[in-house]
Amino acid sequence: MRLKEVNINFTLNKENYSLSVPSNMTLLQIIRDVLHLTGTKCGCEKGECGACTVIMNGVSVNACLVIAAQVDGSSITTIEGIGNALNLHPIQKAFVEEGAVQCGFCTPGMIVSAYYLLNKNPSASDDEIREGLSGNLCRCTGYLKIIEAVKKAEKELNEIKR
Amino acid sequence: MKEKTNYIGHKVNRLDAIEKVTGEIKYMSDLYFPDMLYGKILRSKYPHALIRRIETSKAKAVEGVHAVITWEDVPGFNGFGIATPDQPVLSKDHIRYIGEAVAAVAAKSEEIAEKACALIEVEYEELPIVDNPIDALKENAPKIHENGNLCLHTEIKRGNIEKGFQESALIVENTYYTGRQEHAFLETEGGVAHIDTDGTLVIQVGSQYPQRDQLQLARCLGINPQKIRVISYPVGGAFGGKDELTIQPILALLTLKTGKPVKMVLSREESIISYWKRHPFIMHYKTGIDKEGKIVAQEVKIYEDKGAYSSLGGPVLNLAVEHACGPYRVENVHIDGYAAFTNNGVCGAFRGFGVPQVTFAMETQMDIISEKLGIDPIRLRKINALQKGDTTPIGNKLTTSVGTLKVLESIEECNLWKRRNELSTQDPKKPWIKRGVGLALTYQGTGLGVGLPDYGGAKLELREDGGFTVKIGTVDYGQGILTAYAQIVAETMRCPIEKVKVTLGDTALTADCGPTSASRGVYTGGKASIIAAEEMIQLMKNVAAPLLQASADFIDYDNGFMFLKGEPLRKVSYKEIANKFIDDGKPLPETEGYFLMPIADIEIKNAFGLPHHIFAFSAHVAYVEVNTLTGETRVLQGAEAVDGGVVINKQGYEGQVEGGFVMGLGYALMEDVIIDRGQFKNVNFSTYIIPTVKDTPFHIESIPVINPEDTGPFKAKGIAETVMVATAPAITNAIYRATGTRLYRIPATPEYVYKRLKEVENEKAHKGH
Ligand code: FES
Ligand code: FES
Questions:
Q1: ipTM for this prediction
Q2: Whose CA is closest to atom 4 on ligand 2?
Q3: Cα B110 to ligand 2 centre (Å)
Q4: What is the Å distance from ligand 2's center to B268 Cα?
Q5: Pocket of ligand 1 contains residue A109 by CB under 6 Å
Q6: What's the gap in Å between the CA of A55 and the closest CA on chain B?
Q7: What mean pLDDT is reported for chain B?
Q8: Which of B90, B253, B307, B424 is most enclosed, with most CB atoms within 10 A?
Q9: What mean pLDDT is predicted for residues B369-390?
């Protein structure tokens, strides 16, 4: 009972990929189970928790809701494409310094949502930050330190730009 | 200890934060092995049934299936459970809840495993359902277990309850209900099992106590625990929900059967249906108070909905019994608690462990009393507050640090409380929006209590680079013990924190430190680390002595160096000392620190585990806004004053307070897994709602109340539970201030609040006539 496969070409974190995957696979499964890039997390597979948030064609999406065929021709950025230990993105740095991380399972998705938000709206207000993160659940932190971290990163990003 | 600390009490960034923000850290569910299979569990269709027949041949015939297992494949004892191992790994004949595991498959892909599961034929004979703890205890109730439906009965009587009520000026009597909260850790139960090159079975699944998992697994598998290695760090949230075993025994069986690595990660739905929840309670409270506001008698009856299997339901009941009267002096008590089996899923450990339930009831009672007697809520609590040297309601003397008055004094000074009258108003433009400020107080035992093995353990290794690795069996699932341990070691060894590595939760590498639960992680592992570090200092001084041409007694140490007392320039670095071991052909030293948790000097008869000896205390305030047209509540601000002894890490402390407060907010207003006739009704995040960033208050003030506990590491206790416990009653008491409507049930959903608002309106109208 082999499922029909689809051929897909896409860029992920600036690298080109050409894969043949079962047609019912989700982008989340492609990222994790095929490419073994595990920074993107799975918390529900239903678009309800935001742990799987990635940027696809410039827009933040729940990777668990994107199916293989939609991935074809797209450009994707995951947490691994945002920064790394030697070169932290200001949002990542702010998360560390503000104590916005506890168990860390929501963190990659949260950071990708914040990244998208601040790209789109570099002077997001507190309310807009809350709105922008409202699709990402966190069970540990109570969110306040996450909001603080995003505000701090926003400030820093705006200073860099100046 | 030096007066000035380098790390203790400071704000220290989490040491694992960088690998978490980059996504580099590997959780157990992130692991992939070559040639790995996927596991899938077939769970019962019915909440209560007998199994007549299980037929697996069709499933076994599916291409890509490597193993199909049932109870017949459990080589050892087919049961698990921390307190009583009455839950089958794979059910043989009697199904007691809907998520119960009946069979399991390992196959080349998840899809094939799922398909094979669907082909397993199970013939059931349905049995009548028991769906609440009061019915469960009736004589004619269907029996869930052979010995009936009583899991545990604990009764404590002290003083003369009749006389107490006779002497009371006021008696307040109410019945309270609490919901079935789901842990909702973001990482569901998941991981991989494989067989190592030396034949060791390696289980990598998020858990709170690898050493106990190892023993429970050995019993199920019928193999030597030494042949099992459990690794369980890092974990994407636990909160008590990964204290008991979950998928581990089935994963282990599939791996042993196939000889291949097997991975399993539960879907959110399967996670919610299959494993632990917070026990719902029904509680009758009768409180007698004299004219001065002193509680003179209290009678409490508790019914705990245990669900289908024991797990930690008995100890949860006992902790509830112990804390049922709050941190107050009550001389005449009668507390009668029942944990009853039902077919409502399974319940187990959850942050607070029975205390959130009774705190909701007790603190609502206190709020009612305060109003009826016209005594300020904080004054009423101060009048009754337990203090050091007092005897608790269950009869033990408090000899460790007691912060009841201190947390009350601190919370009294916070902005929200001082401004409570001006804040408790209705919106001038929208008069249906009403605001109020409420308060609640609680306390929480640290550690496991009397009669249970309660110890801390740590190994400390000097590394070649002059740094240290501390190895402790507890697990960091977000609460921050990894960083706290590093701070404690760096402070004790007087070296930069960057030189300290921490290894956690691995039966092959770390010292057994007991379960990561009961707010005991920092206390036990921290204390054991200090013991190991002190021994290390001595060993290192002995090696430094000849290098410095002095006796070890004259050596001091700081900042990664050992030097002559008073002559800091005559020094050797820790690295040089490490190299000396190597040059001398000696192994680098590893010290071990073990200690027993102090316990109370009495036992409470017929209440296993009671009493506790060390307690954290906290006072919570909530500022809410209620829409009286819809019954919706929004928590605008919060504050907590917490006595957890000396704070080890300011950042971690605030993180616990904020996270705990918001988890308490969910418990107060929205969270309840609804089970109707044994069937789960809300099993994902679109129907089981937890607080989002939009529900979180605008501000939560965390007020550390530094109340040193002499027995603790750097005089710390533990705060992980108390921070969430009193939030729910603070919120419901605030709703009362806002609306004049008393709530006896949580979660206080809009439907329930609206219904109560109408009831109270009708009562008033009735009285008016
Ligand atoms: S895993 Fe995609 S939203 Fe939860
Ligand atoms: S840090 Fe644990 S879920 Fe957000």
A1: 0.98
A2: A138
A3: 27
A4: 16
A5: no
A6: 15
A7: 97
A8: B307
A9: 98
